[in-house]
From TrEMBL:
GO terms for molecular function: DNA binding; sigma factor activity. SUPFAM superfamilies: Sigma2 domain of RNA polymerase sigma factors, Sigma3 and sigma4 domains of RNA polymerase sigma factors. Residues 12-76 form the RNA polymerase sigma-70 region domain. Keywords: DNA-binding, Sigma factor, Transcription, Transcription regulation. The keyword DNA-binding applies. It comes from the Bacteria. Residues 102-154 form the RNA polymerase sigma factor 70 region 4 type domain. It comes from Cellulomonas pakistanensis. This is RNA polymerase subunit sigma-24. One of its GO terms (biological process) is DNA-templated transcription initiation.
Length: 177
């Protein structure tokens, strides 16, 4: 017997049970079939010549489980980072960008001088809270308060959704404060 014959026999005999197992994990027949096929290929490539194929089903089941877990991790990582991609459809036109800049400038003018200074240093000069505190001769707590108040006022002035966490606005920039 050739290895091709052994592989075909294994897939024919154990394939439906393995797909059933994978379907329980995935909830989808097409995904289950893909996982089983990938797992059989991986298992068969690790097969030693002359080895008994009874170990193969256990190996394939484990490979299906690992493949499913890996797929879930990849999907979760994608969901967690997909928002970082720029969507050309969401990019405003030059006219809209000009209006947005004008609205932001107008909203900044309505802030108190300290709120405006903290906001500009934080978001335009990319300074951390300790750097802003040193530059403005304020305590770090005062800077955080000015940033928080400014973020809250800007969200109202610019019509940002009420469920926006204003703390995120004052602590953006890689988590630096």
């Amino acid at each position: 017997m050739t290895w091709q014959h052994d592989l075909a026999a294994f897939a024919r005999e154990r394939g439906p049970a393995l797909v059933g197992y994978a379907r329980l994990l995935t909830g989808d027949t097409a995904t289950a079939e893909d996982l089983v096929q990938d797992a059989i290929v991986r298992a068969w490539s690790r097969r030693r010549s002359g080895a008994d194929i009874t170990w193969l089903e256990a190996y394939v089941r484990r490979a299906v489980l690992n493949g499913w877990v890996d797929r879930c991790r990849r999907e979760r990582a994608w969901r967690d980072h997909a928002h970082l991609l720029v969507d050309d459809a969401a990019t405003p036109s030059p006219e809209r960008a000009t209006v947005d800049r004008a609205q932001v400038a107008d909203a900044l003018e309505r802030l108190s001088p300290r709120e405006r200074a903290c906001t500009v240093l934080r978001h335009y000069d990319d300074l951390t809270v300790p750097e802003i505190a040193q530059r403005l001769d304020l305590s770090e707590g005062a800077v955080k308060r000015y940033l928080s108040d400014a973020a809250r006022r800007l969200s109202r002035l610019l019509g940002v959704a009420d469920d926006l966490d204003t703390e995120d606005l004052s602590t953006t920039n890689g988590g630096r404060r």
